[in-house]
């Protein structure tokens, strides 16, 4: 392996990883971002709660701006999905592997995010509905947009109940639909639904069609038409690479980190949705900034690197 050892390999190029990449590159560190290209931000047709964009911005455009900003300062981005992470016992160096290559690094930042579980429906229909705001995944982000609209929540357990109750502060017309069979809820959940006057419908549920600006859901109790449907079916955390090198997980399946985004593995950091916290762009960016600064300071503590005088830098650049 002749490639130089990176100061930091950032795995994941969503808001957390790209913010970290911007900071790390501007710290004059040698870094690489490896990104599988499935940022949840890329699903957002137009985010309206992310600060600084009063007219909103599409998730793809926001990501592209961040990629441009990181690359402007020297970050490199590989469109690859890392499949393996190893840590050498003696040196503590990391090696990550992906389809077309691998890299060695002093530190690794995992900003690999989570995936929402989708409701059972045709994939093309899903993506069309998502782009048109007929399917939504994040009431904190876009509950405002369903104010006084007809909303269906597909979910069965306390998570589904909590989401339906949350959305009830935006609209009086909320229906909780069981994804598979009849809703089986405990007394406390039933009390919450009754208090909030939320209707319940038995499944199995399947979103079957888009009709004008509405979405039609087929249930055990017939067809229902909504302005928007929120699947509340949970999510899967992308922690596999961290687990390969012994990173500890919290009860909810996210990485356990200290206040500076360090995992329990020396040299391994995590940021964004894959760490327990508020799953939001601003939060992911904040954690990316904290992680990058911690990485810079931890590297510096081990091996301070003073900047060379300008004349020596110029000589090195001209090769003389
Ligand atoms: C429909 C929808 C709407 C939303 N709307 C808003 C909103 O309006 N406002 C808001 O603040 N938040 C919103 N969110 C939440 C927001 O998208 C996330 O909080 C944010 O994307 C988290 O950033 P992240 O960098 O942690 O993870 P992500 O953005 O998910 O990025 C993770 C990246 O890591 C990559 N990756 C994973 N594993 C590997 C691997 N092994 N190798 C290489 N790459 C890998 C993935 O491909 C992905 O590109 C929304 C989410 C959804 C689904």
List the helices and strands and how they pair.
Elements (H helix, E strand, L loop, with lengths): L5 E6 L3 H12 L4 E4 L24 H14 L3 E3 L3 E6 L6 E5 L2 E10 L3 E3 L6 H9 L7 H4 L8 E4 L3 H10 L6 E4 L9 H9 L3 E3 L4 E6 L2 E6 L2 E5 L1 E4 L3 E3 L2 H5 L23 E3 L10 H22 L7 H9 L2
Parallel strand pairs: 1-2, 1-6, 2-3, 6-16, 8-9, 8-14, 9-10
Antiparallel strand pairs: 4-5, 5-6, 7-15, 11-12, 12-13
Helix pairs in contact: 1-2, 1-8
The structure holds flavin-adenine dinucleotide.
Flavin-adenine dinucleotide binds next to helix 1, helix 4 and helix 8.
Task: Give an overview in words.
- The protein is α/β, with parallel strands linked by helices.
- The chain has helices at 15-26, 59-72, 123-131, 139-142, 158-167, 187-195, 240-244, 281-302, 310-318; strands at 6-11, 31-34, 76-78, 82-87, 94-98, 101-110, 114-116, 151-154, 174-177, 199-201, 206-211, 214-219, 222-226, 228-231, 235-237, 268-270.
- The strands form four sheets. Strands 1, 2, 3, 4, 5, 6 and 16 form a seven-stranded mixed sheet that branches. The chain has a four-stranded parallel sheet with strand order 10-9-8-14, with helices on one face.
- Helix 1 (15-26) runs parallel beside helix 2 and helix 1 packs parallel to helix 8 (281-302).
- The chain starts with 5 loop residues before the first strand and ends with a helix.
- The structure holds flavin-adenine dinucleotide.
- Flavin-adenine dinucleotide (FAD) is lined by residues 11-17, 34-41, 43-44, 47, 49-50, 81-82, 111-113, 116, 137-138, 141-142, 238, 241, 272-273, 279-282, 284.
